[in-house]
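pasting for ref
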Amino acid sequence: MPSVGFAIPVLPGKTDVDRDAMGSCWRGERRATYEDAGRRAGVTKETVWIQTTPMGDLAVIYLEADDLETAFGTIGGSGEPFDQWFRDHVRDVHGISLADGMPIPELILDF
């Protein structure tokens, strides 16, 4: 199964916003639409951690998907309401536009 791990900054003051939003996807009111979005994108596993660093908080993400490029493309371009909300959330909390595309990180070690 193709997989990828990456870290993205959490903008100052947005850690609790991110924590609450991801909680709503994991165990809250957005769970059903989050799971549907993952199925549509071919995502089979996703985990997210908050890592505190001296330079600020990071969201550390691990993702498995049938096809990573298709998954990122679906998440970045879907017109479904959840996907639009998710893109807006990522832009607000991380300063990244998923609609502009997100390059898959380069794997440099795999043991």
